[in-house]
Write a structure and sequence with these properties.
- The protein folds into 2 domains: about 1-65, no CATH class; about 85-199, UDP N-Acetylglucosamine Acyltransferase, domain 1.
- The chain contains 3 helices and 17 strands.
- It has helices at about 1-30, 35-45, 50-65; strands spanning about 70-75, 80, 85, 90, 95-100, 100-105, 110, 115, 130, 135, 145, 150-155, 160, 170, 175, 185, 190-195.
- The strands form 4 sheets. It has a 7-stranded mixed β-sheet. Strands 2-5-8-13-15 form a 5-stranded parallel β-sheet. The protein has a 3-stranded parallel β-sheet with strand order 3-6-11, with no helix packed on it.
- Strand 16 and strand 17 (about 190-195) form a beta hairpin.
- It is globular, with a radius of gyration of 18 Å.
């Protein structure tokens, strides 16, 4: 019932968010540019309170590859690419950024966490210099990151690789390699502990 009610509110708010959604979709589909999506996404992230949460959900339900109506996006949090996919009952705390990712059901992402578009979304590391002192930057490579169902990403964590289901990424941890199901990630770079043996 609550999901249906929220869906009705989000649909009603499409009347408010349509200028943002429509302009983002047109620019992305026609010109393969994410610039308008990024502008609108960041602008809507600045609206506080529950009204801001509903407006952001309304926008993302139209612009992301997949998004459910019970998404909750906190203050100053946003998706940086429209290629993200979001399943049911996903919550993002404040000041969180999500790139090209698939977030499964019942995932909670705490404040100030970053879900990057893989390890190389800023290029493959060092730039090269040619003879005339021009710099050639390494090619950007967006890789989809998967967050498994019922997982929790702690405060300030940075995720660059897949996270298994029923897993926990501890606060401040940096995940650089794929994480199996039912594990706890701790540290930078994160090491994995068996969740069942840790209690």
């Amino acid at each position: 019932m609550r999901y249906v009610l929220k869906g009705m509110v989000v649909w009603a708010l499409h009347l408010v968010t349509w200028p943002f959604s429509l302009s983002s979709l047109i620019v992305y589909k026609l010109f393969a540019s994410e610039g308008m999506f990024a502008f609108c996404s960041q602008l809507l992230s600045l609206i506080p309170g529950i009204i801001g949460q509903y407006l952001r959900t309304s926008f993302y339900c139209v612009t992301l590859e997949k998004c459910k109506y019970d998404l909750m996006v906190g203050f100053c949090s946003y998706f940086s690419h429209p290629t993200a996919r979001v399943e049911r009952n996903v919550e993002l705390g404040s000041f969180t950024v999500v790139g090209t990712a698939t977030i499964d059901n019942n995932v909670m992402i705490s404040s100030r966490a970053s879900i990057l578009s893989g390890k190389y979304h800023h290029g493959h590391g060092l730039s090269s210099h040619s003879g005339n002192d021009t710099v050639t930057h390494a090619k950007v490579n967006y890789t989809r990151v998967y967050i498994g169902t019922r997982s929790w990403i702690g405060e300030g964590a940075i995720v660059m690789a897949n996270i298994g289901s029923d897993s926990i990424v501890s606060a401040g941890s940096v995940v650089t390699k794929d994480m199996p199901d039912k594990m706890i990630a701790i540290g930078n770079p994160a090491r994995f502990l068996n969740r069942e043996l840790s209690y």
